[in-house]
Amino acid sequence: MEPDFWHQRWHNNQIGFHESAVNPSLVTHLPSLELAGGSRVFVPLCGKTLDIGWLLSQGYSVVGAELSQLAVEQLFTDLGIEPGITEAGRLSRYHARGIDIFVGDIFDLTPKMVGQVDAVYDRAALVALPEPMRKQYTAHLSAISRVAPQLLITFEYDQQLMNGPPFSVPNNEVHSHYDDHYRVVSLSSGPLVGGLKGKTAAIANVWLLKSRPQG
After folding, report:
1. Tens digit of pLDDT for each residue in 2-41?
2. What is the torsion angle, in degrees rounded to the nearest 10, for the CA atoms of residue 111, residue 117, residue 123 and residue 126?
3. Could you tell me which residues come within 8 angstroms of residue 47 by beta carbon, excluding any fewer than 6 positions away?
4. Which residues of 107-141 are buried (b: 16+ CB within 10 A; e: fewer)?
5. Which domains does the chain have, with CATH numbers?
6. CA distance linking residue 180 with residue 125, whole number of Å
7. Which of 18, 73, 138, 186 has the highest count of CB atoms within 10 angstroms of its CB?
8. Contact in structure between 95 and 84 (CB atoms under 8 Å)
């Protein structure tokens, strides 16, 4: 997707992908990551998700990446936090105690900029990208997170019935992206209540990606 597509969606408030409640799969399955208190969770393409506030309320710190400055400004407004804003290469870093959000192209993020990542929570990033970009994204995500364990949510549906995003990401594609570096475990799979955007039936899949020992 071109950056202008997402900027226009935020400008026009066409943000049906923004959930009005904390994602129940996060609440249910976060314990699978076995995180210690105070762990730092990376949320790619985070928008203004309420999941960030929930993670903070559970005692975790959050680092995120988001293309839209408008989304990040709304995120901090919703959190009731006044961020500091600094330059970080081609990106802007919005930061406060326990939270760092980088605004700009996620592919401009480096491991040094991101810093420590204890886990990745990918609810809306992989499924937001068309197939040609997903291989580049998954390789980049593994690099900047230093192969941190992941909680990943994907959808499967007949894409002839609806154009993405979110896109359908088949299970075999998840394995093709991550099997080299992770043990990929299915945590749950079932019909998405209400369908996808109310337009088509879909299966929601929740994955645990545990990094394989290197050596």
Report:
1. 566 545 654 555 544 446 789 999 999 999 999 999 999 9
2. 30
3. 15, 17, 18, 66, 68, 71, 75, 124
4. eebeeebbeebbbbbbbbbbbbbeeeebeebbeeb
5. 3-9+37-211 (3.40.50.150)
6. 20
7. 138
8. yes
Query: Both ends of the chain: CA-CA distance in Å?
Result: 36
Cα atoms in the 13 Å half-sphere on the side-chain side of 38 = 1
Per the structure block, which two tokens stand in for 119? 């886990």
Do residues 125 and 45 make contact, with C-beta atoms less than 8 angstroms apart? yes
Q: Which two tokens stand for residue 47?
A: 């928008």
165-199 pLDDT, tens digit per residue, is 899 999 999 999 999 999 999 999 999 988 887 88
Q: Yes or no: say if 149 and 117 are a contact pair by the CB < 8 Å rule.
A: no
Q: At what angle do helices 171-178 and 131-144 cross, to 10 degrees?
A: 40
Please, how many CA atoms are within 13 Å of residue 178, restricted to the half-sphere of its CB? 30
Going from the C-alpha of 162 to that of each of 4, 169, 202, 206, the distances in angstroms are 21, 14, 11, 21
Can you read off the two tokens belonging to residue 52? Answer: 């960030």
- pTM as predicted: 0.91
Residue 120 CB contacts under 8 Å (≥ 6 apart), including other chains: 41, 42, 43, 44, 141, 145, 148, 149, 150, 151, 152, 209
The closest of 187, 185, 44 to 126, measured between CA atoms, is: 44
Classify residue 197 as left (phi > 0), alpha (psi -120 to 50) or beta: left
